[in-house]
Amino acid sequence: MKRLDTSAGDFEADFAALLDDARETTARVDAAVAAIIADVRARGDAALVELTTRFDRWTPRDAGALHVTEAEIAAGTAAVAPDLMEALDLAASRIEAFHAAQMPKDIALHDAAGLKLGLRWGALDAVGLYVPGGKASYPSSVLMNAIPARVAGVGRVAICVPTPDGELNPLVLAAAQRAGVSEIWRVGGAQAIAALAWGTESIAPVDRVAGPGNAYVAEAKRQVFGRVGIDSIAGPSEVVVIADAANDPAHVAMDLLAQAEHDESAQSILITNDAGFADAVAAAVTAALPTLPRAPIAGESWRRHGAVILVRDMAEAAALANLLSPEHLQIMTADPQALFARIRHAGAAFLGRFCPEAVGDYVAGPNHVLPTGRTARFASGLSVFDFLKRTTWVEADRAALGKVGPAAVALARAEGLTAHAESVALRLR
Amino acid sequence: MKRLDTSAGDFEADFAALLDDARETTARVDAAVAAIIADVRARGDAALVELTTRFDRWTPRDAGALHVTEAEIAAGTAAVAPDLMEALDLAASRIEAFHAAQMPKDIALHDAAGLKLGLRWGALDAVGLYVPGGKASYPSSVLMNAIPARVAGVGRVAICVPTPDGELNPLVLAAAQRAGVSEIWRVGGAQAIAALAWGTESIAPVDRVAGPGNAYVAEAKRQVFGRVGIDSIAGPSEVVVIADAANDPAHVAMDLLAQAEHDESAQSILITNDAGFADAVAAAVTAALPTLPRAPIAGESWRRHGAVILVRDMAEAAALANLLSPEHLQIMTADPQALFARIRHAGAAFLGRFCPEAVGDYVAGPNHVLPTGRTARFASGLSVFDFLKRTTWVEADRAALGKVGPAAVALARAEGLTAHAESVALRLR
């Protein structure tokens, strides 16, 4: 864990190093991924069966075995304990409500020149959601990816999830069913992204691919971009906690560790205006760490990427948070909304002393798929907007064209586009 | 030009071929672009000067010469004829008004569980706009890219434009000034995208890069994606015109040619329910073609990619248009809004017999930067949304956490994320 102090002489250099901490050795998997995509495009299902056998430690008897059946989904759902099912349902309902509130309205204008013009939102026809397999197979992510698509009005929502050793996570199936997913495929890695983008004999192509994944999945999304839409490419997760001395250090410590337990590349940063509180939190982290089953991961993350930054005042804290543009930002002060008003860049904010980020990971309602690695400067969390597109329209009659047409003719001629100019001029003759 | 008829036996195969017509031999420029980006990252301004000398047929005396001065912008603007300036101003005002109407509202909810939650829109700090140089240097594109950014509230809008032989287009400068652009750089190609994404000694990095460009520019945007946001990667332009026999064939022919004159890869498709009208339009295209200065380009486009599709009725026309998901769609029927209601996928629609697409290219108000090559299935035209991002937020007190926290604890435990669970549970003890 690094300690920084804005009053210290070496602060600028230390903070620059923190900003530059990429936290990922992006393995060069371009060529491997390109080969997998080419294989799936060329051989379809046969490639999926072979690649699944090679990477996922089980052998589908044929392409049909890649499809998760209704019966399997029902059985998986039935296997989930009732209290967990209730928790899943509360989460789903709240995510639905928050995303429904996001739905934008169409625009229709009739202007002084007599033109009618507007903008119409429409849902994508079909989307593919990637769900990581194994230990990182999170049912909450199924809800967070699938519900916005369904709320947006997407007709077909297909999930691809690798099933290492052939095993399916029942809670993932339950979440998929609750979220209204249309179909589930036991396919993972770059081959899943290729199948969703290009289609195979079994899997119909989709229009957009979303969801987190490893380096292969991320690179595959990058390579199919253009053929289909993709969401942002997620890096390791991070949190910035701005907290004053009135907080319980144990709470803040656990918030930092919650982030750190995701993986070794995760990053937890505390910004505080109180040196004693900084020490107390650091001590609380050290005390709590051994109690965690995921202590090796969380410890490694905290040691390698954790930081405690001492600031002179909270205005400075907001400025640093903006430079860090974190995925998650907790503001634990007396008036968190006042500080939040100074924040320009953050994926999601959690306000108050009783609002740990974990609430947002599961049940608050806003999405937990968020821009990482300083991309909150330009990117946003997943939302209904990821599953909608816009068509603009203009309607003109001869009188309206007479008002604006001559300007179009002048500009088209200036650009040397004669047919453009003539298409307007002809109609006004 | 291809002729298709939905009543003909070979229609399915012919239409499939039309859909698959990629219209671009995407040159493999990955390695060349990667080298240019690496060079700009390593050597900054020095690389820009050298690459400009190599590619743009002029030699900047130093990096300072890459910056277009206030005096140059003023001189360029003064060189524009008053009527053209008026046309530019009408276009800019209308584009501003339409994009201002798009500005979304923040969300703030206070729910039954006692949580406050919301979504706040914010503008990007800085964006870079690429403007192609030479013959494809379109002032209208400057307006279409820069105005939405300014309307969204972006503080810094930087333009990069190559100036082959050192020449600047005065109308581009005038458009940039009218649109409120902050700075203009005489830099083009992949090196411009690299400079905008990574910054050099002279050019500060931006958060998002937008604007059309050649294969090098497109590949460079693909490679910097993640470091900065990018807009969709534009392919060759296309139009689908749905028209009945009540139209003037000469109007429709000129609309098809307006699209075709962009470049040889452009595509113009007429869909009509009247065989005689189809013939009349085809004849009118042949007649009008020789009158155009850009006849070689338009003729090549029409011969290679043009198509006339005869349909049984207009419902069929709408269905085919959806499959084509065109960038531009003209609907020239008695009740164009009724047919438009059946359209699911199109970048922009132009409704009525007096609404040629060229109106939308310049003065209507909606953006002319639109999704090409069937990407309207999932992508949208440029808008204020490209220059905004969202931060979601949640605020909870102890009572509210008590309502939703236990579900978060249950789900976190099920996912094996103990510290997540504990960060909530601790606060409820």
From TrEMBL, chains A, B:
SUPFAM superfamilies: ALDH-like (SSF53720)
Catalytic activity: L-histidinol + 2 NAD(+) + H2O = L-histidine + 2 NADH + 3 H(+)
Cofactor: Zn(2+)
Binding residue positions for Zn(2+): 259, 262, 361, 420
Cofactor note (record): Binds 1 zinc ion per subunit.
Keywords (A to Z) from UniProt: Amino-acid biosynthesis, Histidine biosynthesis, Metal-binding, NAD, Oxidoreductase, Zinc
Record-level Gene Ontology MF annotations: histidinol dehydrogenase activity
Binding site for NAD(+): 130, 191, 214
Sequence positions that bind substrate: 237, 259, 262, 328, 361, 415, 420
Active-site residues, record numbering mapped to chain: 327-328
HAMAP family, alphabetized: HisD
Annotated function: Catalyzes the sequential NAD-dependent oxidations of L-histidinol to L-histidinaldehyde and then to L-histidine.
NCBIfam families: hisD
Annotated family: Belongs to the histidinol dehydrogenase family.
Protein name: Histidinol dehydrogenase
Organism: Plastoroseomonas hellenica
